[in-house]
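Archive entry. Fields below.
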Amino acid sequence: MPTSRKLDAVDHVALSVTDIREALDWYSRHFQCEVLYQDDTWALVQVSNIKLALVIPSQHPPHLGFVTPKAADFGSLKLHRDGKRSVYITDPAGNFLELLAAG
Amino acid sequence: MPTSRKLDAVDHVALSVTDIREALDWYSRHFQCEVLYQDDTWALVQVSNIKLALVIPSQHPPHLGFVTPKAADFGSLKLHRDGKRSVYITDPAGNFLELLAAG
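PREDICTED_STRUCTURE:
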């Protein structure tokens, strides 16, 4: 059972889609969500507990974005336009994870 | 920007892994998380805002599990051992989604 220690959070899940506009239309029609950002290569959608990124495979891999205070232990953090810093790694099975620095 | 309307939630993200024990060991070492369940075919891990399912591809597809009051609109719900009811669908790009009935 969960204890009271502070658990890490998943900031976002990035799914590969073939067409950003089509995907946004579909997710918006079927789920209660809010579109936070969109362009031709990716979009960001808010659901109640996480963000969902819709990405074109040629631009971004599908991945899971964790917030962890240990992000910098995994490699050099890249600064993004929104001020966040992160590094991409893979788990032992090859799943892409983006580790975002906490705070 | 998000409004005050109630947004749907993501219950869990299921990632394909090659070995459940190896994956659990890796995720437990690198993230603050709690193992809720494990057997040889899948495991369930709690992080602060969602659950992470680690699954063997032959048993379960990698997927995103949404909680939505409209789950039954997408097909016949299957009752699981834990009392939850859900249906699997795919989005237009072929991503698997599990829609769990709310409440």
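CURATOR_NOTE: The two ends of chain A are 27 Å apart (CA to CA).
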